[in-house]
Amino acid sequence: MAIVGAGACGLTAAIALRAAGVDCVVLERDAVASGSTALSSGFIPAAGTQVQRALGIADDAESFAQDILHKSRGTAAAHLVQAYTQAAAPALDALAAHGLRFEVLTNFLYPGHGVHRMHTLAQRTGAALVAALLDAAGRAGVDLLTSAHATELWVGPRDRILGIGVHRPGGAVERIACDVLLLACNGFGGNEPLRRELLPEMGEAIFAGHTGNDGSAILWGRQLGAALADLGGYQGHGSWVVPQGALMTWAVMMEGGVQLNARGQRFHDETQGYSEAAVDVLAQPGGIAWNVFGEAQLALAREFPDFVAAEAAGALRTAADTATLARIIGCEAAALPAEIARFGPPFHAVRVTGALFHTQGGLDIDAQCRVRRADGSLFPNLLAAGGAARGVSGNAVWGYLSGNGLLSAVAGGWIAGQTAAGRS
């Protein structure tokens, strides 16, 4: 079994395979595994986990599925919604047995979730999640090959994948045979021509994801005649701090913060979601907004390492009165909305823009993560999950429910591991 990509998806699949006694090799293009997972907040939504039950949180896969479908207005792939919401809890419980100590965020609800179901490690970073998965994979006996950039597939009769060509340091190309191949190499956000073709509304936006999101899975899929789906779906974020280049948690918005444009105007309902907020922010003058909030929200923000780093880099501006806040924003004090009075003084502000984090469309797959051809038939031994495959956000930015990316990665990786184990 060969797996392309050592993010949350590939490593979860590999751990599942080793638990089933199946040998596998994970191919990672970078010298150190990181990818989109490391750049995320590391929050994984799951319903009915052991951690939730220990906290007395009543949740189940059906409720989780309904939240996903409601956010996507019924457009998310129903078979994957069911499969992922059912697999997420067993996947996290199994990873916990491999040493990942999850906890549930209970001090605020992310938009669209009916209960507290965001699971995180104590560090609350995607980098910590990758490190913990790497440690668990190593102890499970997973073979990881870094600086191994997969560039070509070897295909036999009836579209059976025979192996994969891997570029190594120094220019050498290794050919690795496999009986099953899992593409867990994320999306196409880092491929500018492909992004402009498939996501023109984000063609000029900052790409805040990993450069390894080069669209390899889609390009291979096109060569093979695979079906593609939901290519218009993606996770944006309306709170990318500029010029520092850091993510500011949307928890501040969910706990009462507001976004104002350069005219001092509030321009949208911040509680609808941070993904579609990216489009709303980019539509403002200069593509810029200001997150405005008070002392309580600042205390919450400081619980997140990304914000702490952004604050240390000078992102936070504080005003003793509305006149000073208006000067920071560059607007007239009279233009500021009346509701900001609830924050202060003092008032806090951070300058942000909209950004693209990762795409949510890709290879079309069935509920077992098997890749489909354009005619609906299945490739005999090709699997895809995570950002390489279609997700559960439908075909538009507003369909993204908080955590859908890591849900597809972890639950999809877990299912793909089970599928591959059954074939071996």
From TrEMBL:
UniProt domain FAD-dependent oxidoreductase 2 FAD-binding: residue ranges: 2-395
A Pfam family this chain is assigned to: FAD_binding_2
Keyword Transport: no
Tagged with keyword Ligase: no
Gene3D superfamilies on file: FAD/NAD(P)-binding domain, Succinate dehydrogenase/fumarate reductase flavoprotein, catalytic domain
Classification via InterPro entries: FAD-dep_OxRdtase_2_FAD-bd (IPR003953), FAD-oxidoreductase_2 (IPR050315), FAD/NAD-bd_sf (IPR036188), Succ_DH/fumarate_Rdtase_cat_sf (IPR027477)
Recorded superkingdom: Bacteria
Cofactor(s), by name: FAD
Entry keywords, A to Z: FAD, Flavoprotein, Oxidoreductase
Transmembrane domains' residue ranges: none
Protein name, entry field: FAD-dependent oxidoreductase
